[in-house]
Amino acid sequence: MATTKKRSECPISCSLDVWGDKWSLLIIRDLMILKQCTYGDFLKSDEKIATNILAARLLMLEENGIISKSNHPDSKAKVLYKLTLKGIDLLPLMIEINLWADKYSILPADRKSILEEIKKDKEGFIKNAKSELKKVI
Amino acid sequence: MATTKKRSECPISCSLDVWGDKWSLLIIRDLMILKQCTYGDFLKSDEKIATNILAARLLMLEENGIISKSNHPDSKAKVLYKLTLKGIDLLPLMIEINLWADKYSILPADRKSILEEIKKDKEGFIKNAKSELKKVI
DNA sequence: ATTTGTACTTGCAAAACGCAAGCAAATTTA
DNA sequence: TAAATTTGCTTGCGTTTTGCAAGTACAAAT
Lengths: 137, 137
Known about the structure:
2 copies of one chain form a homodimer. By secondary structure, chain A is mostly helical. Helices cover 61% and strands 9% of the residues of chain A. In chain A, strand 2 and strand 3 form a beta hairpin. In chain A, helix 6 (91-104) packs across helix 7 and helix 7 (109-120) crosses helix 8 (122-135). Chain B binds a DNA duplex through helix 4. Chains A, B: Residues 10-109 form the HTH hxlR-type domain. Chains A, B: Pfam families: HxlR. Chains A, B: This is HxlR family transcriptional regulator.
C-alpha cells in the first residue's frame, strides 16, 4: 500500500486523508477504551468490521504513525496494537465527537455516564485519560 | 437516497455514519470559513470534489440536519447553503482537528496564524465564531 | 498428533467513486 | 429578443473500494 496522495495542503483535508474514513476512528476508539487490542478484539466490536478492511486500516494507521504493533506478553501468536503519542493526541477530537453526539442523539447509558463526567471537567478528564494511555505505550 | 443504516449505537459510529466520509467535513469546513456557499463555491475548493459527489453529500448533510438550503438574495438561479445549529456545533471538533494537524504537520501560513489565535483563547474563539455563524442562519 | 486460536490473505460480487458530458432553468450579453 | 453563459445539478460509464466468505500459516492447547 503506497502512501496516499494528499488532496490539498488544508489541515482538515490532510487529517481526513489519514483517518477520515468510516472505520479508522472506530479502531482508534477501541484503543482509547481498551488501551491495547489484539486483532481479534477489534473484530469483536459492535460494528463488525470485515477482516480485510481491518488489516488494511491497521496497516495504514501504523504507516501514518497513529498506532504501533508490539508483541503480546502471553503469546507469540498474538499481536498487541496500541496508540502512539500521535494517536493519543486524537483524544480531544474523540471527546468532541462524543459531546456533539450527546447533544443531538441518544447515547447508550454507559457512554452517557462517562459524558457527564467529561462535561464536569473536560480538561481534567483529558489529562487523566491521556496519562493512562501513555502508561502502556 | 434512503436513510443510511447505523452500524451500532456508539456515538462515534453514529456520528461517522453522518459525516465520516472523505468529503463531508470539507464541505462543513467551507461553510465555517465562508459562512454561506453556493454550489459553485464548493467546487472551487482546492480538493476538487466531483459534482455528483458534491450533490450527494449536500443532500445527505441536509437530510441529516447539518446544513440547510435557502434562496440567494441576488439570483433565483443560485442556491445558498448554510450550517444549521447542529452543523455549527461541529466547530469545536473542527478546531480540534486543526490543533492536531498543527501538532503533527506543517500548516499553510494563513491557517497557522488563525491557529495561534485559537491557542491563546480556545473557548473565546469558539464562542465568537459560533455567534458569527449563527448570524446568517 | 490433532485440534483450536490468532492474524491475517485471497477471490469475487456489489457498491461507491470520479471523470466527462449532458441538461434545464435563470441570467447576461449582443 | 435571440443567443450565449451561468448555475445547479443529473447521467453514463470505467475504476476503485468495500464487504462477505473462504482459505492459509503459524502458535498453542489438548
